[in-house]
């Protein structure tokens, strides 16, 4: 039998089951409200397990605990039914011999996936299983579509992403990933608040998209009759707050970049950005090491984690290399091979790097790094001293104006953080914006706009400041051993489905 025939038969069987379940709910509608909202749940499954799982059968019989639970039916075996609410489960004993004729008929009409409420007494079976002996029950919501096979789960990866609600019902691993994500975000907030940072919110829609070199999404404000942009980064607004006198700020929120879909990229993603007055980029590198170490301990329970088969020990100091040092180390070249435009072009050609001859030296250097080095940086490594041409918002390095006081944190060949000592010279910033505009006019759709108001803000004086952005989605991937960014987003963006798919 071909896969196509198998899929057709599966679809036919599923349609028959859906039709049968619709008949059941139609019969219920004739008698009463099919989706009632009058059931009172007194206990959650987890609470019952916590309070009574360690008690012996005679003790429970003596206690005669009466309660009510509610949740989704995930297993049915004779009179034994397993109910799931949230992350916990409780077994029910539903003996139709003890029910009225109408209630026994309703019991017979229950299916896997149905959501019910049940009242009864807590006891233990002869096998020691904590169970609720159900005296009465009520169908609260009919599952018209059958759940995936309990042993196979939802194995179609694309359907897991498209129908996350089903994935969360049947895959405990998926629920666990999002619970860890929630704990990571909660801890990050705690961490920065303990350090005296203030959480803030800045605009999602901006007249000028800034703060990162990325292609923005464009929308239109009807009342103002002007195009606006979904933000690519909150950076320039957060630094306006530094100018205004808030010396430590952070924001945990969405960014939007009109880029492709991949295992590492989603056009809508979550970023942590934070800024601290009178700090330098080395201070933030130290902070970042501590943050990752603390997340590992507080959320995972160990400073050592495993991602896709590789072990990472965050108790050890992270490696630190300049961009140039990393290229020399991993590409078997000399520092002199990167010293001039002619040398860099020759090196790039020798290494078979894709680039444009008209690009400035620093941009070609970065192409060498990104295409030949970044993917080899497995263990946690801070890469520093990024070229000025690709760092329009970072402070020049004193004594070496061709590079900046900037770093990126690379783990497993992926960038997880980007930070730098901020450029607070308004005249230098204006010139760099002009360079970005020139690049945009030359066809670079990711180059920045000229933000005149931001330059005005700098003209009022911004204290020496360091700032950093950390991609939360990639961070969660690392700490949950998730191979794709889609695994850590409840509802990732997907390409449209076609009838032929």
Describe the model.
The chain starts with a helix and ends in a 21-residue tail after the last helix. The relative contact order is 0.09. 36% of the residues lie in helices and 24% in strands. The protein has two domains: 3-147, OB fold (Dihydrolipoamide Acetyltransferase, E2P), CATH 2.40.50.140; 170-318 and 380-488, 2-Layer Sandwich (BirA Bifunctional Protein, domain 2). The protein is an alpha+beta fold. It has helices at 3-31, 45-52, 57-63, 101-108, 157-162, 164-170, 172-194, 235-243, 281-300, 323-331, 341-350, 361-373, 426-441, 452-459, 472-480; strands at 66-77, 80-85, 88-93, 115-124, 130-141, 198-199, 205-206, 218-221, 226-230, 248-256, 268-277, 304-307, 310-313, 319-322, 381-384, 396-397, 400-404, 406-411, 414-421, 465-471. The strands form five sheets. Strands 6-10-11-20-19-18-15-14 form an eight-stranded mixed sheet, with helices on both faces. A five-stranded mixed barrel has the order 1-2-3-5-4. The protein has a three-stranded antiparallel sheet with strand order 7-9-8, with no helix packed on it. The protein is elongated, with a radius of gyration of 29 Å. Helix 6 (164-170) packs across helix 7.
Features of the shown structure:
501 residues; alpha+beta; OB fold (Dihydrolipoamide Acetyltransferase, E2P); BirA Bifunctional Protein, domain 2; 2 domains; 8-stranded mixed β-sheet; 5-stranded mixed beta barrel; 15 helices
